[in-house]
Amino acid sequence: MNAIFKALNDETRRDILELLRKQEMTAGDIADQFHISKPSISHHLDILKRADLVTSEKKGQFVVYSLNTTIVDDILQWIITLKK
Amino acid sequence: MNAIFKALNDETRRDILELLRKQEMTAGDIADQFHISKPSISHHLDILKRADLVTSEKKGQFVVYSLNTTIVDDILQWIITLKK
DNA sequence: TAAATATTTAGACAAATATCTAAATATTAT
DNA sequence: ATAATATTTAGATATTTGTCTAAATATTTA
Q1: A42 CA – D29 C1', rounded, Å
Q2: pLDDT for residue A84
Q3: Would the CA dihedral through B5, B10, B15, B20 be positive or negative?
Q4: pLDDT tens across A3-25, in order?
Q5: Rounded to a whole number, what is the distance in Å from the CA of A48 to chain B's nearest CA?
Q6: Which tens digits make up the pLDDT trace of B50-71?
Q7: Alpha carbon separation from B35 to A63, B17, B25, B31, B46 (Å, rounded)
Q8: Which InterPro entries does this UniProt record tie to the protein (chains A, B) (predicted)?
């Protein structure tokens, strides 16, 4: 749970998740959406991956990232519990 | 949204929210549940308050903290959107 | 095989954060 | 009024974090 909340505690990373909600994207395409260097985006993607919020698959020279909605359920569960 | 995720990005603060889920508590009673100094807990409570996740009310020399479930809904909404 | 393209790793640095102790403020009880 | 109790504020410090540039790795194309 720690890794998930840590991952969500950054606007750029939350924006990446919203991008991936619509479609999977390569690391480069993701980076192009921000005014941040590619290495920094790569680092953000790594944090999202460690939290299991995204998955990545190498396709040739590209790396395609996708949202992992399974883990999103875990956060939902945690927050819903607060309301019970 | 930033303040909310920032507030949730700490195990102690999440634990405080879970305590308050069951009942409202004074600052001192909350502090007693952790091996952390009272000033530090006071600081955590301040962050939770700025995020509107808790409310506080002074009762005599005590300050009673409660969970604010209205804001919890905002987080739910954000996360649910990720799944749509 | 050499050059080009895509991505990550490494190392550095400034800013943010969690924690502490000491002191200040507010309220209640003697 | 003074002492005791509850909480917050102030200031310091070590750690974590987001960012950058330069270099390394992997893949494709000429």
Answers
A1: 25
A2: 79
A3: negative
A4: 999 999 999 999 999 999 999 99
A5: 14
A6: 999 999 999 999 999 999 999 9
A7: 44, 16, 17, 8, 18
A8: ArsR-like_HTH, HTH_ArsR_DNA-bd_dom, HTH_MetalResp_TranReg, SdpR-like_repress, WH-like_DNA-bd_sf, WH_DNA-bd_sf
B17 — pLDDT class (breaks 50, 70, 90): very high
Side chain identity at B57, as an amino acid letter?
Answer: E
B17 burial via Cβ count (<10 Å: 0-12, 13-18, 19+): buried
State the amino acid at position A17 in one-letter form: L
Mutate to test the interface with A, among B6, B8, B10 (most CBs of A within 10 A): B8
Spatial distance from the CA of A72 to the C1' of D22 (Å)? 36
- The angle subtended at Cα B69 by Cα B66 and Cα B71, nearest 5°, is 110
CB < 8 Å to A82, chain B: 17-18, 21, 67, 69, 72
Domains in chain A, start-ordered, CATH in brackets? 2-83 (1.10.10.10)
Inter-chain touch A79–B79, beta carbons under 8 Å: yes
pTM: 0.93
